[in-house]
Task: inverse folding
């Protein structure tokens, strides 16, 4: 399995520990979002309309994903940033699963990955 950023699911991006080393790792292998990182994390200064379009595309993938339930549980339990299993961090916040890490730090790390992907595809 490749370990470059363009092959990582949101779950693998947030937790780059090799699957075999994780207790709940097996569900990640069936994620339909592999290679779609840009749909699940916002770019810098993303406008609300662009966010709505991006999240609608992400939701379409999540709606067809066979591992949405463990993905949603993982995101809630780990207070993740980004769009996971049909839920943004705002939705999880309203449900009581507030992001605990400073969003600025987490989103900055994601933006660096997205910029690297953009540079690779240019
Ligand atoms: S539910 Fe969505 S975010 Fe979670 S693994 Fe599936 S496609 Fe990816």
Result:
């Amino acid at each position: 399995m490749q370990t470059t950023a363009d092959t990582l699911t949101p779950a693998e991006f947030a937790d780059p520990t090799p699957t075999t080393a994780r207790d709940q790792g097996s569900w990640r292998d069936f994620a339909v979002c592999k290679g779609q990182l840009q749909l699940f994390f916002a770019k810098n200064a993303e406008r609300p309309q662009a966010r709505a379009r991006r999240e609608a595309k992400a939701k379409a993938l999540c709606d067809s994903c066979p591992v949405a339930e463990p993905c949603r549980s993982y995101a809630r339990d780990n207070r993740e940033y980004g769009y996971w299993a049909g839920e943004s961090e705002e939705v999880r916040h309203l449900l009581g699963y507030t992001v605990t890490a400073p969003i600025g730090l987490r989103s900055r790390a994601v933006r660096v990955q997205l910029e690297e992907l953009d540079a690779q595809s240019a």
About this structure: Residues 5-121 form one domain. DSSP finds six helices and no strands in the chain. The pocket of iron/sulfur cluster is lined by residues 9-11, 31-33, 40, 61-62, 65, 67-68, 71, 84-85 (CB under 6 Å).
